[in-house]
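Fold this complex.
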Amino acid sequence: MQTSRDASAEDEAPALQPTGRATVPALEALLYRPLPVLDHGFVRVIDYMGDDAAVVQGARVSYGRGTKTVSQDRALIAYLMRHRHTSPFELCEIKLHVKLPIFIARQWIRHRTANVNEISARYSVLDREFYIPAPDHLAAQSADNRQGRGAVLEGAEAADVLDMLQADCRRAYRHYERLMNRTEDGAVIEEGRQGLARELARMNLTLNTYTQWYWKVDLHNLMHFLALRADPHAQYEIRAYAEVLIDVLHRWVPMTAAAFEEYRRGAYALSATALAVVRRLLAGEAVTAETSGLSKREWRELMTALERPGE
Amino acid sequence: MQTSRDASAEDEAPALQPTGRATVPALEALLYRPLPVLDHGFVRVIDYMGDDAAVVQGARVSYGRGTKTVSQDRALIAYLMRHRHTSPFELCEIKLHVKLPIFIARQWIRHRTANVNEISARYSVLDREFYIPAPDHLAAQSADNRQGRGAVLEGAEAADVLDMLQADCRRAYRHYERLMNRTEDGAVIEEGRQGLARELARMNLTLNTYTQWYWKVDLHNLMHFLALRADPHAQYEIRAYAEVLIDVLHRWVPMTAAAFEEYRRGAYALSATALAVVRRLLAGEAVTAETSGLSKREWRELMTALERPGE
Amino acid sequence: MQTSRDASAEDEAPALQPTGRATVPALEALLYRPLPVLDHGFVRVIDYMGDDAAVVQGARVSYGRGTKTVSQDRALIAYLMRHRHTSPFELCEIKLHVKLPIFIARQWIRHRTANVNEISARYSVLDREFYIPAPDHLAAQSADNRQGRGAVLEGAEAADVLDMLQADCRRAYRHYERLMNRTEDGAVIEEGRQGLARELARMNLTLNTYTQWYWKVDLHNLMHFLALRADPHAQYEIRAYAEVLIDVLHRWVPMTAAAFEEYRRGAYALSATALAVVRRLLAGEAVTAETSGLSKREWRELMTALERPGE
Amino acid sequence: MQTSRDASAEDEAPALQPTGRATVPALEALLYRPLPVLDHGFVRVIDYMGDDAAVVQGARVSYGRGTKTVSQDRALIAYLMRHRHTSPFELCEIKLHVKLPIFIARQWIRHRTANVNEISARYSVLDREFYIPAPDHLAAQSADNRQGRGAVLEGAEAADVLDMLQADCRRAYRHYERLMNRTEDGAVIEEGRQGLARELARMNLTLNTYTQWYWKVDLHNLMHFLALRADPHAQYEIRAYAEVLIDVLHRWVPMTAAAFEEYRRGAYALSATALAVVRRLLAGEAVTAETSGLSKREWRELMTALERPGE
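Structure:
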């Protein structure tokens, strides 16, 4: 992982201290370093609690002394993930500092089982930073998927789009300063004016303005977030954060991350009808979309998952 | 309460049906009617579960058969509110349809113990509606309170502020349409262009654009929301919603609402030191800010609460 | 469904009232009626909010006006269930009165996203009612499954087991009364004694004593509870409640219940490796337990799911 | 704090490791040591995340760069506590191993915003340990407070109570072993018997049997738990745990703990009517119970809080 220059003065890494707590050297090496995402965003790991062994320990208090020798840690973690025994994963926790565009923050905050402290534009002035998509992410509306993206825009249309995006957020920010009668750095713009309250002036900003927050979540809920947001159907901009966090996951809890890949990200859920189709196919029956009992879309998705695209 | 003309076609009030459930005629009279808030917002009660009697019933399952005659319902509800026995209030639930500016939605969503379905700008095009403060809400930044508002802006400054607010959201919206190459109503703007994906185009909108959601919350968490958001320190724009909801509360659960006013909204919490100050004052001691043990701000607030502004 | 004679005097069905809210006649017919479970337990539906149409309505506020004609309600609900869009299901709510043995209540309460008001043994005296398994549920410890049940006990062992279970809870209850110096009905047992505080005396009761609570939960979390607790691996005693609640689900929200059966209860999750095995089998490869990459247990479970028990 | 001999072999303190995370030496000194509670219970701190500085850091991301010099950390923490800005306190987390009687575990678990892994009596055999109150905690039922305790039992009644409590849990445990046909240590009791499933046999245990769990909670929710459970109205047995945890709180986050004492534990909430009474008293009016507008109970409590017991 690459790290950006961007860093906050107020929460730099303290000197190393001895601790009796569970410690993960691979994650320690990442502490406080901004991992860049999009054009101005980042993720920084500020703190963490627990490791793979803490998951095992949590499971073993449930199973009691009788199970000490039953299984290796790796197998136990796989078992927990597979059977959705989620509570041992809730015993680990991670705290991140994230910088992200407001319209992505609005998606992210829908995950309610987490703790958040966001910079408040009632108290302070937001930074003059905006998300502008890179040219290869300027995607058209998908024609056949109501929420998806199609081909990348090109030529004059791409240029016009970039012009509008770049101009509007900058103008809105300049007016944000003029509304408050203060520059980003706090200087008065015009003597004799009072300046609109910050809590009102912010309404003039565009949704691609960057915000920041501390976000703390337990390992189970982090994986739930990642399963949804690292999915190919998720919006590219939040997926970019999820992918960085999946790297963090592998460093922090490698056994849990491996089980997550096997039983969650790489898994495929067969509906009752799709399970029947697979049984019929294995029994040698020539099942078609029409005789499958599935909708066309479900049939197509099942054939893709089974790598029978011709069907 | 006044109702606005604004109404959604798709969830009009159904014909009346008989039900064996707890029913509150005063709230039935309000069902589905938009209660106007701010310039384009509203709150509509879509559904509810329970009433004051359901709170009592929940408390009595806890107390068991022995307490049936102990107290009147009103006294029991007051007792529960006073001693923060919150679980009986969680047995009631209300579902609202709310239209509100995005920057207020971002405050509101911080209350996590609720259920939300918001209009998605990935799937559909947001309406061309923006919050513009009324002239008497165009407040200056407070000089002595970092998050508060001061005097109302006047003259040229007020005019400039309104001009900027009105122009920027409208320009951003026109460009939002041009980015998508579709008008608000779905008409193609320029043949031969693909249109940027909706999920990207939305980032050009300003934070005073209106959004909508269904919001469902239990009675305890509704009161917690109202205690914070109907407070004089809350931002005016969210307080406007909270005040409408307090009216709804009084119609829905009048005994609970009365207890809420007595023990929550109208209550005053004395810190350990402030309690000692009150005792000393009552004992005839001439306590001053300096001898109180309180900070200057706490002293001032206590004297205001005790209606001794001269101190 | 059968209903038991057991009924609480204090929350009988009120007279029918007209309401503008969503109403489900099939569930109205069940309101307040105790549905028997185990030997002395029951489930009663006390109140509910929403129906299948409320799920659709919640989804459509997310999708906005553009999607009104896209799909039938049934297909939309199936789509939501399949893609784990859980928030529209959270807009419905149900409130139950449940009577259940304490050791089952301890499993049940682990589902935290719900509201609970339980009878308090600090305030009142618990009923003299205990769960004693029916003879065909007196199962031995499973030899090969650490948490499971084996064959049903028979003969002298079964008789001894029943004797101990029946005697101990009754003796504990008699001593509970003597500790408090009060009978179940409140009569003083021995003049001149004070009686131990109820909050202490209860510690002498056994875990098969029945307790009662109001339990309120949203439709999404109800289905999550049912997916785990109606599973064949769940303990029989809690499964008995889950099965009654699945009947309630089908009456309340038939479309949602059908989607739940198709995509949740009847579904089968293939891990990444299991998906690869299915692809290889379909391509005609002779995969064995050894070449599958699966553990023995996973291989056995997969072959069972695919109805290839011989493998 | 004293530590008991009781310790679990499987999660002993690891060797000290260097960490870049926030570290609290006073809490490190306590890690993994069982702090005794009641006759066989304990609390052990297993892990923690954050410190007072982490609370400040969380608050400052909300306030932004402008507030760096505004206030000392102590004053900021006091401000947050006083104005119920709870989210910065949610950024700290603590993980405990607790051994406690089942009837207390049932009170404790009502605090839902926490993570729990409890020993499962489906998988393993519970220990032969029971809570028996010390003689000075054998309290009678309070005559005037439905949930409270009165005087301590004495003489023959106390002796009888202790006899019943001690005999019943022991007999129930012996039968628990005979039901399973296994001793606590796993030895077969009678050849040729199968033994009842553990998940059923446990129902014969009494509610004073000890259980164990890992309990993880954020600092805000820990203080909410402590405010309710260290209160004089809480049952003595859970208060005993809360009091040990308040000591832990002072070691872990001393500034936060001081603010908790000042604004939460030592605070007194005046209802709207009680606030009016205080104003009238300060203005020299001779208010009585009758003219106060308060109920008798509220009047008495207010006079006690104001140290005017004679009124």
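Chain B touches chain D through 34 residues (CB under 8 Å).
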